[in-house]
Structure formats: structure tokens, C-alpha cells
Amino acid sequence: MTVAPKREDYDVVVIGAGPAGLAAAATSAEAGLSTLLLDENVGPGGQVFRAIASTPVTDRNQLGADYWAGADLVQSLRASSAEVIHRAIVWSLDRNLEIAVSIGGASAFVKAKRVILATGALERPFPIPGWTLPGVMTAGAAQTMLKSSALVPDGRTVIAGQGPLLWLLAAQILRLDGRIDRILDTTERGNYFAALPHAFAFLTSPYFAKGLSMMREVKAKVQVVSGVTELSASGDGQLASVSYVAGGKRETIPVDLLLLHQGVVPNVNLAMSAGVEHRWDDLQLCWSPVLDASGNSTIPGIAIAGDGAGIGGASAAVVRGRIAALAAVEALSPAAAAKLPAMATLRSDLAKAERGRVFLDTLFRPAPQFRIPSGETIVCRCEEVTAKDVLDSVAIGATGPNQLKAYRRTGMGPCQGRLCGLTVTELMAQARGKTPQEIGYYRLRAPVKPITLAELAAVPKSEADVKAVVRG
Amino acid sequence: MTKNVDAIVVGGGIHGCSTALHLCLAGLKPVLIEKDYAGRHASGVNAGGVRQLARHIPEIPLSIRSMGIWEKIADLVDDDCSFESHGQVLVAENEEELAVCRARVAELNALGFTHEELIDATELRRLVPAVAETCPGGVVSRRDGAANPAQTTTAFRRKAEQLGATVREGIAASNVRYGAGLWHVDVGPETFAAPVLVNAAGAWAGKIAAALGEPVPVETVAPMLMITSRVPHFIDPVVILRGRKLSFKQFSNGTVLIGGGHLATPYPDRNETVLDWKSLATSARTVFELFPVMRSASIVRAWAGIEAKMKDDIPVFGPSSRHKGLYHQFGFSLHGFQLGPGAGAVMAELIVNGGTQTRISDLGIDRFHPSTL
Fold first, then answer.
1. Pairwise CB contact (< 8 Å): A92 & B277
2. How far apart are CA A204 and CA A359, in angstroms?
3. Do the domain assignments include residue A352?
């Protein structure tokens, strides 16, 4: 069933129904603000709590207690007056807080007094030789299948990469009797020493005990190769084998499925296309929006919460969602704000939830050779541009990602740079001896997700149609 | 410290880059100053139309001059600029529009211009098989085509630098002043001095002209464009409509560019534009009606470039009417890309020889300010 937004104007529009968006929308609606929550998925939860209201995996141990915490968030959202629309693809947001959203193949426009972006994270590109072969997929995609449909791998499977999500996915696959032949851990040995000064905070964080028991659970059942320094996939039109180097020794194994993961990065496309200023985060190696302590961006009225504000994990995302919503309530309905938990309380909750993050960021900082490819390795999948192509363009004068478009069309395909943007920035920065901040990022343009010409053609006419126009 | 050069060109669009390049070819050493990077604005993000078709009569001689350069563009800049010549077709959607086309072609012929040619429904269908059955004809300019604007502007900039132009990008020209027979312009900590100053600053050129005592009726606009996903090849020429606001082009990779002059809101101080999706929907409706083959294509991206539009829709081109050594080259009013190569060549002739064979007399700033020189 498809439902268009009930109104043209809302006090608060929240985009994304993951942990941050669920918390923000419930808080805002409970305070009496007219609230619309728009979400791309078929149900609430985002990636962390994907299919929380519908998963066929009902044994609570299999997905873990952290997953089921999402059910409470959904409960409070449903108890509130927030209007919630799923399968709603927001394809444009501008600095006037005009939102264009596609719902069931028809587009509608709504205007907000405040927008809270809770668009979450994307998996970091993992551009190794052969990463575009059928049979290679991201861990996140595998997890989506697992949570939505209880599907797990049954062929010869290798998981490669690093980070908390990699271990979580491995544990979940094993609990559902899926097959994992080997885990190739690409964590750099030096990272353990670099992370040590931050270990105390981590030891007292909730991640520690959970992370440790999960790794123990996985290591008891699967061969784990650590210190992997080189990785490639090969096959003739289809993945056939994975080759890696660990401890100076190369090994090649036949596989049917390779799952890649080296952490997540903020999903910045909608915020950037609206004109929100972002800066390069040297620890998390990604672009993060410039925000104040309440999550307000450089564009008045647009706040960002959750992993889209910088990776912080699900617990932090919930608190950031509440903080952004409280800031909106304080601005639009100060009397109602008095009834909500105080900002100071939320900020101390956030500090608690973020404890141990620096340790994780330092430990799981991906190695340069897995971020910055060379030679014939594909960088831009949409336009099939290799690392060498990018370097050749730099040599004849391309100075940054936007200039590179003129030479190679990188970032101009349907993915709008989601799969190549970070790689292109870091590759060009390295080649030109500049920082990623100096090199910059693609200027992103709406529609942030493609819409059909027919859908755009069906948008109702406006007075602008009769305005004088000129020919280009 | 002041650096002496032969000419200072302000603005790294196709016009500034082309003028810098042609000055180099004439043996001069210019500096090219661009506040962002070459091709950042309208010159790099326009529809790429290389069009003599449907031009204002005063700029036709410049357009024809430019066309000759486009046809040998690789000889000039060592880059093909992805220039392809499959003609441009103006479609009349009904008999009234066709009558206007007929009168226009007759007028051009009387003036001695033959590049526009009236076509009937049969020839229109041959050139543009996908066009709706109801269209009775139109006009074709067969030598016209399209190029990649960012690639082109970048190629002009690169070649100018190779031939000895100094290029400064990322810092705006400031403190423009005249003294002791030389123009002085600051670029951050540097100062350049030259007997010649070319104002080719696009959307920002009106301010420079006004500051030098030559205000002109110019506004800042941002025409919108959108591009689709790849669709099977179905059209060669660029198509524009006589009545409705649409231009339409399919690239060799299958993507289709849809433009036509609907405007976004420009914020030139922030280098930003805010798109008007309801106007873009109008373009989408027109395409939907005329080219059924396009209906299931996706819109992948939309954008707008910031540029200058004159009240009378023709550029300001030629020497200042107040200051010796100052030349204007701006206000191309949404149709400057094709003119860039020729305008640079003519501007270099004006600067170096004091005159040109190409008729540009109706384009001067003296149409707003009687000359005081």
C-alpha cells in the first residue's frame, strides 16, 4: 500500500528509520511537533535493526540482545503521533528545507521547519583486484539477506577485512548454520600498538565484553588468518579463487563467495547535496559533516544524527537522535522541551555511548593498500575507471575529483560516487602530495537516488511553469 | 612584488581560456586568473551545444568564425574535446511555428547567411526518427554539434599554459586599478601589471565592469540541466524546440542531456544553486510527450551553472568605451560556449592588431555607454 504524506508542511521531517531516526521521530512527536519519518526500507530498523518488526529469525540468541533493543524504539515510535512512511526514497533536499520524496513511483514535495538527517552509514569501498566480480559482495549485503530472509551462505565462503561488524556477521552466520571456510583479518599489526593508549576507555565500554566473546565464538569454529597484507579475487567472469599474503606467505584458495568488509563510513550524499559543509576525518578516514553539539549542520534547520554524523555505533545513534530532536523541540516549542529529558543528561548518555570509539577507530583503521588501489584495479564501477586511469588524468592536469569528471566521468554514474568517492579522494591526494581535505570530494547533485523521467513528468505543475524562461 | 605581463585575463571560463591561448599564439605572455578553477562554472557544466542555429543576428558572424575553429579543434588544443558534428535541429511542433521558421530562414538568406536550412516533415523524420509524428518540419544547421564542456575548457586552459600563459587558480582577482599606463590586479599576495586587461569573469564580470564605471544591464542566472541513465541509441543531432523550452542531446555512451533554459536560483557568492524541480518537471513532461522511448529512463543527476545574462540577450564583447587597454568579454546569456574558441581568436586580434575582420560592432559595450575615449 502506498501513502503520500498527509500534509505539505511539517515541524520536523526525519529521514531514515534506523536507531537515530526512530529515536528522533518519537521524541519530536511525543513533544507535540508535527513529525514525518521517511524511510527507504519496507519496515523500521535501518541496517542495525533491519527487519526488526518482521524478521523470520525469531530465536533471540541468534541475532543477539543488541538487535532486539530496536524493538523498544519501534514501540515508542508507534505509540507516538509521528507519521511514518516506508519505501519512501528522499531524492532531493535543499537549503530551503524543501524535500522531494518518491513513494510507490510517485513523487511528492514537503517542506519542514527542521530536518533531521539520520541516513546512517555505508560500507567503505574495498577496492582490491577482482572486487567487482560476481561472487564478491559486501558483508552488509550478506547481513541484509540474513536478517530479512534468514539466508546464509552454503558454498565455500571466505570473509575478509576487519572491524566489529565483520565479527558480528560471522557469528550470526554461524548461529544460523551457515558456512564460513576462512576469515582473513586485514587489521594492521601496528594498529594494536597505536590503539593501546585508548584501551582503558574501551575496557570499560559495553563493546569490550561483547566483542571479545563474539570473536571467541567465531574463532572456535572457523580458521582465522590474521595479519593479511595483500588480497585479491580472481575468476573468469565469476569468482573462482581468493589469493592473499599473510606473514610474507602467499596462499590461493578456491571459493564461491567472498564477503568483504572494512568498516562503515557516514552516508553523506543527501547532506552534501543540500550544501552541508563536511570535513575530512583523519582518524575515521572519511567525510563527516560539520556539526555543533546538538547535531546542527552549517545549514540552518538541518541537523544530522546517527552514523551519518560520524561513525559512533547504534547506542550513540539513539542518543544523537534524541539530542537533535530535543534541539528542534527547544527551537519550535520551548514549553514542550521542559517535559523532555534535559540536554545535559542526554550529553552524558552520549559520552557513555561513545566510550571506546577511539580505540575501535584506531584499531580498525584500514590499511592504505586496501583503501588506495593501484594499476588495473577498478576504482569507479559505474564507468569502469581503474586506478591507473585516475593517475594518468592527474598527470595531465586533473587536480581533484570534480576536475576528474571531465577526464573520466568518475562519480557521474548512477551510484553518485558512493562506491568510488573515498577511493578517488585518497588516491588523488596521495598522487598530488596533498591532504584529502585539500583535494576535496565530488559536488553531489540531486536526485540523490535516480527517479524515472515518467515520475518526474507526473509532478504537478506550478506557477514556475508560466515564468519567462530562456533557451540555453 | 609586481610581475609584469603582456595581458591580464580575469576569468577561467571557455572565453578567458580561449583568449589567453590566442594571445599566446600571437606571441604575448598573459596571466589567466580564475577564482575557483578553470571551467568550474557555466563553461564547464553547460549543455555543450556547438550551435550556430537560432542565434541572434548580431552574433552570427562570431559564431561562424568559431565554427571554423571547432571543426579543427584538436589542431588548436591537442584534444578532440569530444566534439561531434551531427547537426542541430529546431523542431516546429505545429504549422504556426513552421511559418516562423520559414520567415527566419528567409531573413537570414537575405542577409547572406546560409547555415540554417528549412526542412519538411520527411526530412525532420529522417534526421530525428524518434520525434512525434505530428511535427510538420523545422530548421537544421548541419555543421552544428556538441562537445564536452568541461573537457573543452580544461583543454584550452592546459594548452594556454603550455604555450606560456601564467595560470592562477583558487584566488580571486582583486583591487583592479590603472596607473602609469598599466592595469594592476592583485591575486592574493601577488600583483600583476599589464597594458591590457580582459574582463571575462562570466557571472562576476558585471561587477568588475560596474566598478570600472561601465555598469550594464546584466543579471546572474543558473540554467538547469539534467542527465538520464543510458538508453539505446536513438538520436544523432541535438534537438531544440521552437515553441517550448527544451534542448535534447544523446551522448555516445547512451546518456541523454535535457536542458532548455529553466532556471535555478543562483547564489554566486557561495558558488551554489538551488534547483527548481517543478520547472524541471516541465522539461520532463515535454520529453515524455515528444520521445516516448525516453519514458522509462532514469534521471541520474541535475545541476545548474552560474552565468551572466544580458537584458538584450547578446554578449558584451570588445574594447571598453571608457578605458584604454580594457576589453570586455562576458554576458553570453546562455549561449556562449560555442562562441568561445572564435571569441578568443577575435579578442586576440583586437588586442594585438587593434581590429578584426569579424563583424562584432553590434556587441560592444558602447551600446550602453557612448564612448568617452
1. yes
2. 11
3. no
Return the residue of B nearest to A468 by Cα. Answer: B262
A36 and A13 housed in the same domain: yes
- The reply to whether residue A456 touches residue B298, judged by beta carbons under 8 angstroms, is no
Note the pLDDT of residue A236: 95
Does 3.30.1300.10 match the CATH number of domain B2-77+149-216+312-367?
A: no
Q: A446 in a domain, yes or no?
A: no
Domain extents in chain B? 2-77+149-216+312-367, 88-143+219-309
Q: Find the helix or strand (DSSP H, E) in which B125 lies.
A: helix B121-127
List of chain B residues with pLDDT < 50 = none
- The shortest C-alpha distance from A462 to chain B (Å) reads 6
Kindly list the residues from chain B whose CB atom is less than 8 angstroms away from the CB atom of residue A459.
Answer: 277-278, 281, 284
Look up the ipTM and state it.
0.90
> Is the pLDDT higher at A266 or at A382?
A266
pLDDT band at A96 (very low <50, low <70, confident <90, very high): very high
User: How confident is the model at residue B371, as a pLDDT?
Assistant: 85
Contact B302 A452 (CB under 8 A): no
Q: For the whole model, what pTM was predicted?
A: 0.92
Identify which of A239, A247, A64 has the alpha carbon closest to the alpha carbon of residue A165: A64
Q: What is the enclosing helix (H) or strand (E) of B146?
A: strand B145-146
Would you place residue A468 in the very low, low, confident or very high pLDDT band (cuts 50, 70, 90)? very low
The reply to whether residue B229 touches residue A414, judged by beta carbons under 8 angstroms, is yes
**Residue given cell 589567453 in the structure block:** B20
- Domain B88-143+219-309 annotated CATH 3.30.70.20: no
Residues of chain B contacting residue A109, judged by C-beta atoms under 8 Å apart? 277-278
Looking at the complex, does the CB of residue B294 fall below 8 Å from at least one CB of chain A?
A: yes
Domains in chain A, number? 3
Residue A214 neighbours by CB under 8 Å, 6+ apart: A167, A168, A171
